[in-house]
Write a structure and sequence with these properties.
alpha/beta, five-stranded mixed β-sheet, about 40% helix, elongated
Length: about 300
């Protein structure tokens, strides 16, 4: 990245204006968030562009976006700002040690069902902690998007992330009682091909679901969904509304099953495949007080409040 003159030292406030303007795609939104005039934010970014001698943002009717130089600076700025927050927390008293902003990423479904119901407890325990929730089904990049902690069901093998297992779960088939009353409950997996099914658009028009037959042998059934949705949360809402039969993670369906809004379908044929939910962070942030505190909180929540099986 071109930096001239070499002696230019940016104001951390200006770096924050850049980062938040890109996150919110708007100077005015960043200004509202910090309760300052829009001109304060714009002038801060102007100072960065003048100091580095490069253009950092593109402005269009669709909002702000980063130039390649702007994206690189924003990535570096996130790390620097996080370090500055950690320094501030380490110099404060023990009660406010866990302080600053923590960016937590997960799917919308996990965020709504598992994180939000317990967020008030987290904030009561750490009053100096500010949480930013990023809810999206895609896998967020921890570094470029400044994510402190991400909840994921797949991790892979990489030195770029540190993963802590929270618990294990299965994916099962569910439907609303009203749908089953109108269309009947399938007795065999093969009958799903004659039922209304709901799937995720990322899986394509034909989806293969795994089961085990009465003898315990693997069995697969391919269905063509009548309804597909672009997020797991939409699939969930569609099932509760009676749109058909679909696959959900058991912890996310637990509350609706308990309250009679969903019924498990074909339980004797469940494949038994086990998945794991992880809290993921980058190696450079895992020792930050706020990151450790939030991951410890998630571990306790997964044990005490979420319908997750313990990790063996």
């Amino acid at each position: 990245m071109k930096k001239e003159p070499r002696s230019f030292l940016p104001d951390p406030a200006d770096l924050r204006w850049l980062v938040r303007s890109l996150d919110l795609r708007s100077f005015s939104a960043a200004a509202r968030e910090m309760d300052v005039a829009v001109s304060v934010v714009a002038r801060g970014v102007d100072r960065l562009e003048a100091g580095y001698g490069v253009r950092l943002l593109r402005r269009s009717t669709h909002g702000l976006s980063a130039t390649p130089e702007g994206a690189e600076l924003a990535q570096e700025a996130r790390a620097l700002l996080a370090q500055l927050e950690d320094i501030g927390a380490s110099l404060s008293d023990q009660r406010s040690r866990v302080a600053g902003t923590l960016r937590l990423a997960s799917s919308q479904e996990i965020c709504e069902a598992l994180v939000l119901p317990h967020l008030a407890d987290l904030q009561a325990r750490y009053p100096a902690l500010r949480v930013e929730l990023l809810a999206d089904d895609r896998v967020a990049d921890l570094v470029t998007e400044g994510i402190d902690v991400a909840l994921r069901t797949t991790v892979g093998h990489s030195d770029l992330v540190v993963a802590r297992a929270l618990g294990r779960f299965e994916r099962r088939l569910y439907a609303a009682p009203e749908y089953l009353r109108l269309h009947g409950t399938p007795a065999e997996p093969s009958e799903l091909q004659q039922r209304h099914t709901v799937t995720h658009t990322a899986q394509g028009p034909a989806v293969t679901w795994a089961f085990r037959n009465a003898q315990g042998k693997p069995l697969e059934v391919t269905v063509r969904s009548r309804l597909a949705a672009s997020s797991s949360a939409l699939v969930h809402h569609a099932l509760v509304s009676g749109a058909g039969i679909g696959m959900l993670s058991s912890p996310l369906a637990a509350a609706d099953v308990a309250q009679g809004r969903l019924v498990e379908v074909l339980a004797p044929f469940a494949s038994g495949t086990v998945h794991t939910l992880y809290a993921v962070s980058s190696p450079g942030r895992r020792n930050a007080a706020r990151v450790k505190a939030v991951i410890d909180f998630l571990v306790k929540a997964s044990k005490d409040r979420w319908a997750l099986a313990p990790v063996r």
